[in-house]
Amino acid sequence: MDNKDLKLAIEQIEVPKEKVLKAIESGLNKAGGIESSPVKKKTMVSTIAAAAVLGITFSSGFVNPTMNGVLAKTPLIGGIFQKFEDSMGVELSKQNLVTELNQSVTRNGLTVKLDSAYFDGEVVSITGRVEGDVDKGHNEKGEISFDMNFENHKGDNDPWLNGKSTEIRKAENGYMFLWKMVYPFKTFKENFTLPVTIHNINGIKGEWEFVIPVNQENLSRLTVNQEKSYAEEGIKIGIKDILVAKASSALIYETVFKNEDEVYLEKAIDDKGNVYHFGNSTILSKSKEDGFHEIVRSKMTKVHPDISSLTFYPSLHIADPKAVQILDRKTFTLNSKRTSLSLRINDAWVEGDNLVLDYQFHGFPNELSKDKLDLIKNNLAYEFMLVDKDYVDTIDPENPVPPESHIISRNKVTVLNEKTSHYQSVFKLNGEQRIDHFKMENTVLQFDFSSFIENKKIAPFSVKIPRQNK
Amino acid sequence: MDSKEHQKLVKKAAKGSNKAFEQLIKRHYEQIYRTAYLYVQNEEDALDVVQEAAYQAYRSIHSLKQPEYFMTWLTRIVIRCSTSVIKNKKNVVPLTEDILSNLEAPAEYSKEESVQLLKAIGGLKETYRTAIILFYYYDYPIKTISDVMEIPEGTVKTYLSRGKAALKKFYNGEEQNYG
User: Fold this and answer.
1) Where is the RNA polymerase sigma factor 70 region 4 type domain (chain B) (predicted)?
2) Could you say which of A7, A27, A378 has the minimum Cβ distance to residue B58?
3) Is A136 on the interface with B (CB under 8 A)?
4) Mean of the pLDDT values across residues A252-272?
5) A326: which strand partners?
6) Is A20 close to B56, i.e. CB distance below 8 A?
7) In angstroms, rounded to a whole number, what is the distance separating the alpha carbons of residues A296 and A255?
């Protein structure tokens, strides 16, 4: 037996790919459900829900002989979408709404060919192939990564990259890929050209440059303009328009908050009982007068014709500002501003290269499930932050990478007594994260209660839907 | 994988990008599943572990402050979920014919040998098993294993050598039986 044997043996464990990917999706779905969640979850939950729905639509296509018959008749391009399990592409290619491309660029032994493009609702998709010795790049075999930009954007600062996904399939001389982008602009153009530049593929340098024609016909708009106020929660949700495309729809809605909370539309059900899920969101406008206003466009399942109403199921994530205390004392209480949760710090001391906190969590229901207790313990390891007091203001909440040598964001949690929610956290002062010249009295302890607050389901509301033009 | 692109994805995921997180975790699906399988030793439980790990990872990704630690952080979650499944079940299902029939051996490598090795890994003490998996399957350096397991580097080395010794013993013993 040598080391290689072990690895080889492990790699022979057969992986049921579809089931594993489905398990991942269910895990993500579950996270978007009743439990509390990270702050920016809005887009995430709904996309995953939508992905799951697409998955179901797709797989049923294969047991349904009629659908298979239809697929058999679709042109080559439809077959590509079938390989990617992209039901939207399959549907559009049946309606001849996919633009066939025939563009090819070769650089450094790699040829990129673009085959097709479609634009439906707010989804823009491009398929193509990479041919050549792509596996000589520094990725693992079977993986492709594109470093790319659209239009003249650079790096991360490219609105087309927000929510872009890439699917890869092995092909004869390389790989096939399908990119899906969320149309990032407020107003729709029916026809436009989209410049695409691939800078490198698996680290192999390019540049591969293309200009893609993108077309969408007859995107229709249903004007709804109805709103619902929740006095107790201090929020208002206004459903403005629904854009109906050929294979998908998009919902435009406005939220108004007193606080910086977030609302998620979990699903909608029409008067015929059809269920709709929401996908990627684009924030169309944001303002702050008389509360926080946000207008969002969200991908949704295609709206059925002839429906007369839609009932939305929203849930609310409460934003709780970070609780803060300078460590110039050993005993104090950190309070959540908007819930009854609090942390009583019983003691704080330095022991060798460690800072130790002894504390109790207050405000949870009496009976907590094992699962919940595990999650609390897990989250406690991430939600404390020790910050050099001179650097507190330099942390950009949008960019979670902390200033080096002035912050410690991880700790090791020990449960002292589960029944009394009594815990101990140990922060390594000289680990990979550190605070130079550490002194307790110069250090701020921050605690974020947000991930301990459960999402609150709020009452569903219905709006009337105008009749669609045929 | 392009580590720069990987880090970009992690940063985006930590900032709340849904797609980035889904892409990230799906990129590692084989490793996640196999790791889970090594602990729980059957498909059903391994899939449960994958689901739970995805769930927990998603819930705490926003607090991952250093993108370069994504993989070790995720691995820790997978191991924690695996061991909690084992603990909840208590009766661990041993490697059976089920895995035997699932194995697809490459020509140069015998199926029998792989099964013996996996069986042996399954029979190891949990701490040895984790060290062995991280060292041989993940190719992690001792330092990283010590971070993931939250034990000193010296202890990692001890676990590795004891684990390897136990594997050899088991493996050789079995080999004789199969003579």
Assistant:
1) 115-167
2) A27
3) no
4) 88
5) A444
6) no
7) 8
How are strands ordered across the β-sheet holding A323-326? A323-326, A443-447, A384-388, A407-408
For the stretch A134-156, pLDDT in tens is 877 766 666 777 888 899 887 76
Residue of A nearest to B27 (CA): A143
Contact call for A378 and B109, based on CB within 8 A:
no
Question: From residue B57, how far is each of A30, A252, A426, B163 by CA, in Å?
Answer: 12, 30, 22, 28
Report the C-alpha gap between A172 and A187 in whole angstroms: 40
Residue of B nearest to A279 (CA): B18
Interface of B with A in 24-43 (CB under 8 A): 25-27, 29-30, 32-34, 37-38, 43
Q: Which residues pair with A297 in a beta bridge?
A: A252, A282
Mutation test of the interface with chain B: which of A13, A412, A455, choosing the one with the most B Cβ atoms within 10 A?
A13
Whole-number Cα distances in Å, A142 to A29, A135, A177, B142, B145: 27, 8, 12, 28, 26
* Contact assignment for B59 to A31 by CB distance below 8 Å: yes
For A95, other C-beta atoms within 10 Å of its C-beta total 11
Most confident of A53-57, A60-64, A94-98, A217-221: A94-98
Contact (CB<8Å) A383/B63:
yes
Residue A57 has pLDDT above 80, yes or no: no
A133-142, A353-362, B74-83, range with the lowest pLDDT: A133-142
Rounded to whole angstroms, the Cα distance separating A289 from A279 reads 28
Question: Cβ neighbours of residue A145 under 8 Å, at least 6 residues apart?
Answer: A139, A201, A202, B1, B2, B5
CA distances from B141 to A26, A72, B134, B144 (A): 32, 51, 9, 5
> Is the distance from CB of A10 to CB of B136 less than 8 angstroms?
yes
Whether A415 has a pLDDT exceeding 90, the answer reads yes
Between A465 and A279, name the one with better pLDDT: A465
The token pair that represents A291 in the structure block: 């509360």
- List A457's β-bridge partners, or say none: A315
CB B2 within 8 A of CB A138: yes
Q: Closest-CA residue in chain A for B114?
A: A9
Asked if A401 is an interface residue toward chain B (Cβ–Cβ < 8 A), one would say: yes
Domain parsing of chain B, residue ranges:
1-93, 94-179
Q: How far is A188 from chain B (nearest CA, A)?
A: 23
- With beta carbons under 8 A apart, name residues in chain A contacting B106: 8, 12
Confidence of residue A110 (pLDDT cuts 50, 70, 90): very high
Domains of chain A and any CATH numbers = 98-215 (2.60.40.1630), 220-319+456-464 (2.60.40.1640), 323-452 (no CATH)
pLDDT band of B176, cuts 50, 70, 90? very low
Each residue's pLDDT tens digit, A159-214 = 888 777 788 888 888 889 999 898 988 888 888 899 999 988 887 888 999 999 99
Q: Which of residues 69-108 of B touch A (CB under 8 A)?
A: 80, 84, 99, 102-106
CATH class of B94-179: mainly alpha
Tokens of A450: 């947000």
**Helix, strand, or coil here: A303?**
coil
When the pLDDT of each residue in chain B is averaged and rounded to a whole number, the result is: 74
CATH class of B1-93: mainly alpha
**Which residues in chain B touch residue A375, judged by CB atoms under 8 angstroms apart?**
56, 59
